[in-house]
Design brief:
It is a single chain. By secondary structure, this protein is an all-alpha fold. The protein has helices at 2-21, 29-50, 57-85. The longest helix is centred in the last third of the chain and has 29 residues, at 57-85. The radius of gyration is 14 Å and the shape is globular.
Length: 86
């Protein structure tokens, strides 16, 4: 179980780095990695507690990392635009 957690973190970090280098996000490398790791941790613990997820832990890590990159920065950016207008 511990190795699955470490693999989830590594995969999430790689997804965050690649998405930033590919231009999918414009958050910064470290910020994208942190967002991806947070989403992957959430999916990992939901999988342990409730059994909800895809078949393999690697696919869970990739899907949750991309989902976190889509949801979190979009929510954060709207509040930054509002602050800049004031």
């Amino acid at each position: 179980m511990f190795m699955i957690l470490m693999g989830t973190v590594v995969i999430a970090g790689i997804v965050g780095y690649i998405s930033e280098k590919a231009g999918f996000t414009n958050n910064g490398i470290l910020q994208s990695i942190i967002i991806c790791v947070g989403g992957a941790f959430l999916a990992y613990f939901v999988r342990i507690m409730f059994g909800i997820g895809f078949g393999s832990p690697g696919l869970n890590a990739i899907a949750s990392s991309l989902g976190a990159l889509i949801i979190v920065p979009t929510h954060w950016r709207s509040s930054v635009k509002d602050r800049r207008r004031k």
